[in-house]
């Protein structure tokens, strides 16, 4: 892929217009243009976020808010040693212990009845609104991963369960569940070279159209998930999808409609990931 040089519009101006964890991350990691203004913004965002954290480490006992804020803290550059991050991860550990179908261990699930509705109405970040149990478990596993805690026993139990569940099938009950699970299996050391990941990538390859999109699957999230894989099956699909990435770019350099900031992140971070293949 041609990466940033192949785009019709330079996305930096759009990214620079944002004042969010996503903009701080992209300017630092992709454009290499972190300034004193960004350092000040980082501190301001942190000071706004952390006072809202509950004593138990969550944000209002809501999984969606807690997970998204932990993701934001990672984007800002905070690690697992940070007090707010540490407390948030401890809360995630407290909601682990659920079984899927009474057989598979290691699932994360909050008891807050507002979470399923909030999940469906908030398309933010790298995970999408699949089944609530799968959404929460995959997102939690991913958060432990990005904070360098792949060895956490709860995380490893969840990954092993997903490897057992996947079997020889190419997908789960829905496109979102399939993609959420495939995303963590692609990245976790226990599973990234597994036959389950191979099966998932083959399944997506069958669904890829001549334009590069994937039938029944969300384009931007799929493009981003594949950018995390080092499998040739993923690289081939990314190449075919790049023409659609170019075509879908908005005139201001962004991507997407309602969730424009998230979609722009998914594209630009994917291009960054693919550049290191």
Multimeric state of these chains?
single chain
How many DSSP E strands?
A: 2
Number of domains: 1
Report low-confidence residues grouped into runs of 5 or more: none
Distance between the terminal alpha carbons, to the nearest Å?
Answer: 10 Å
Mean pLDDT, as a whole number?
A: 94
Note the main sheet. Answer: 2 strands, antiparallel
Predict the CATH topology: Glycosyltransferase
Given this structure, which CATH class is correct? Mainly Alpha
What's the helix count? 13
Q: In which order are the strands of the major sheet placed?
A: 1-2
What is the CA-atom radius of gyration, in angstroms?
18 Å
The geometry reads as: globular
SSE arrangement, N to C: HHHHHEEHHHHHHHH
Q: What portion of residues is helical?
A: 55-70%
Category by helix and strand content: mainly alpha
- What is the percentage of strand-forming residues? under 5%
CATH architecture: Alpha/alpha barrel
Q: Would you mind describing this structure in some detail?
A:
The protein is mainly alpha-helical and 277 residues long. It has a single domain (3-275), classed as Glycosyltransferase (Alpha/alpha barrel). Helices cover 57% and strands 4% of the residues. The chain contains 13 helices and two strands. It has helices at 12-17, 21-29, 36-49, 63-76, 83-94, 115-121, 132-146, 153-166, 175-187, 195-207, 219-226, 232-248, 260-275, and strands spanning 96-100, 104-108. Strands 1-2 form a two-stranded antiparallel ribbon. Helix 2 packs parallel to helix 4, helix 4 (63-76) packs antiparallel against helix 5 and helix 4 runs parallel beside helix 7. The chain is globular. The model has no long low-confidence stretch (mean pLDDT 94).
